[in-house]
Write a structure and sequence with these properties.
about 35% helix; metalloexopeptidase activity; Aminopeptidase; two-stranded antiparallel ribbon; 10 strands; 8 helices; globular; alpha/beta; disordered N terminus
Length: about 300
């Protein structure tokens, strides 16, 4: 009898483990990336016609997911004025799902890329249509499973021009900065031959470790920690994407991304290069983390 009970318990373990994982629509995830990285988007350079097309698509998907807007629509306009480029009307797209705690988690992914060079379009499938696809998947999930904390979803513009969208977002945040518990930033999730997705930031915010350690591997992807120590030089990702602006404001962050690959910032960063199984599982790992941290994060600051 005891052996039978033990065997039954062991057989039940995989189902218990899988029940902790967030289910996502992999076909929709891939479709979102395919659309955003199409030649018709022209590389999604800030201020371009392709950028406007990407905005329209993302807004439609926000509405389909059921995100609320903080004002009349999802758009947050701002100007980019640097020595390199001037954009009169750059646009962040911001929506949210209300929680009960009075605090917020901000999920970010930049939708802009670098445009085109001559006739070659830099489609930016991994950088960063993949992050936007995962953001949309997370929005869809939490709209159906109401969160404990308000979750703000921000598809940011101008990352490639100096993290401009993140600067504009925190310059005029939709909620008080003191109410933002955490930034979860996604930038390049879909191409890695070793099945490794990195979570960067716990070196600066070690209180994140108990939450990250609860994220279990999926079939095609496992979570790695690192790329956040100053002595790593270029391999320190602390300042390399939109989370850097949150870090500057002392808002804790986790940055999910893959290591550089041969297609980075090249015309070959196309949808056909994406490892579809890895990408779906990498996006799933981010959602698993969001589910854990939303449910278990209390009022105690992470910094």
């Amino acid at each position: 009898m005891k052996k039978t009970i033990i065997l039954a318990a062991l057989l039940s373990l995989p189902f218990v483990a899988s029940a902790q994982r967030v289910l996502l629509d992999a076909s929709q995830l891939l479709q979102d990336v395919k659309v955003l990285s199409a030649d018709s988007m022209g590389g999604r350079l800030s201020g371009s016609e392709g950028s406007k097309m990407a905005q329209e698509y993302i807004q439609t998907r926000f509405k389909q997911a059921g995100l609320k807007a903080f004002g009349d629509d999802y758009k947050q306009y701002f100007k980019i004025n640097t020595q390199r480029v001037q954009v009169e009307q750059a646009t962040n797209l911001v929506g949210y799902i209300a929680g009960k705690s009075g605090k917020a988690i901000v999920v970010t992914a930049h939708y802009d890329h670098v445009g085109f060079d001559g006739e070659e379009v830099f489609n930016g499938a991994d950088d960063n249509a993949s992050g936007v696809g995962a953001l949309l998947a997370a929005a869809t999930y939490f709209a159906k499973h109401p969160p404990k904390h308000t979750i703000i979803f921000a598809a940011l513009d101008g990352e490639e021009l100096g993290l401009q969208g993140a600067k504009a977002f925190l310059g005029r945040p939709p909620v008080p900065q003191n109410d933002i518990l955490l930034n979860v930033n996604m930038d390049m999730l879909s191409i890695n031959k070793k099945g490794e997705l990195y979570a960067s930031g716990a070196y600066h915010y070690p209180k994140l470790l108990p939450y990250l350690n609860q994220v279990k591997p999926r079939a095609g992807a496992k979570l790695m920690l690192g790329h956040d120590r100053p002595e790593q030089g270029h391999d320190d990702w602390t300042g390399q994407s939109d989370h850097a602006v949150f870090h500057k404001y002392k808002i804790p962050y986790v940055y999910f991304g893959v290591e550089d690959h041969p297609y980075y910032h090249k015309g070959t960063d196309e949808f056909k290069q994406i490892n579809q199984q890895f990408y779906a599982d990498a996006a799933g790992l981010v959602l698993d983390f969001l589910k854990v941290v939303d449910a278990k994060l209390g009022q105690t600051p992470l910094n």
